[in-house]
Specification:
Length: about 140
Amino acid sequence: MSDPAWSLHPQLKKDTIDIGDLPLCRVLVIQDAHYPWLLLVPRRDGAVEIIDLDEIEQAQLMTEISRVARALKDITKCDKLNIAALGNVVPQLHVHVIARRTSDAAWPRPVWGVMPALPHDPEEVRNFISALRRKIWLG
């Protein structure tokens, strides 16, 4: 159940495409076609760190990270998954799930700041979102 006081941080709203809600998290696609890159944002007002969630919510977060990561790996056939909760720029708790390839622009470094964001091809991102929604049970 979503926290009624919760809202998505404006920077995350600006940088993402909303694809739906799992029981705890809003699932978003980062608007950068260089990498298949998802965010999970727990819908809990004031959550900055994973430890700000209670133990049941922490377990649910791990379940949702695993579900999304498995789906992303299956869809993209990536070489490696990067999963991180940093929050150095945007304090709202969010978890990055990024499909990496040894041939991507940033490999083997982290993706942040390596390349300017590349806009998605509208049809490709629609197909990606549709496949992802099916795999993670969003419809």
